[in-house]
Amino acid sequence: MADCIFCNIISGDIPSCKVYEDQEVLAFLDISQTTPGHTLVIPKEHVRNVLEMSESTASSLFKRIPKIARAIQKSTNAPAMNIINNNESIAGQTVFHAHIHLVPRYSGNDGINITYTTNEPNFEVLGKMAEQIAQEVNL
Ligand code: 5GP
Ligand code: ZN
């Protein structure tokens, strides 16, 4: 896609610091470096995000994550890592070519705060929600 930043990185029209490349996947350092070693892993196929991704693209993308994550960990000595994926603007997606963030973590108080609200569970509501999703998955 001509006006896509990440397609232009894949083609080499925009320079990047590559850390891994094969036929289907490219990994390069995020320009923002949330922490040192912050890497993006992308499919070479232009797809908007995981919500629009085929199983075969997901398979080639996600199967590379552990290998790249371990290489980042070895190179940086980071004891921990967040693996994050944003889908659509409300969820924080700003570049609309699917990507997975690998963010090495060096300390628990580095200013990055990823938390999920905890609510008192309502098992009736949970059960209905699970049923709906389960039906959709099998369609
Ligand atoms: P999102 O917010 O969509 O999940 O993440 C997009 C990421 O792409 C951001 O972390 C941003 O720093 C990174 N990014 C945007 N433009 C470029 C670029 O031209 N080169 C590189 N290496 N990263 C970029
Ligand atoms: Zn693209």
TrEMBL record:
InterPro entries found in the cross-reference section: HINT, Histidine_triad_HIT, HIT-like, HIT-like_sf
Pfam families referenced in this protein's UniProt entry, alphabetically:
HIT (PF01230)
Picking any one GO biological process from the record gives: methylation
Q: What is its EC number?
A: 2.1.1.-
- Keyword vocabulary terms for this entry: Methyltransferase, Transferase
Q: Where is this motif: Histidine triad motif?
A: 97-101
**Domain HIT residues, every copy:** 5-112
- Enzyme superclass (EC): transferase
Molecular function in Gene Ontology = methyltransferase activity
User: PROSITE patterns, per this entry?
Assistant: HIT_2
Recorded protein name is: HIT family protein
Q: Give the organism, scientific name.
A: Streptococcus caledonicus
Taxonomic lineage per UniProt?
A: Bacteria, Bacillati, Bacillota, Bacilli, Lactobacillales
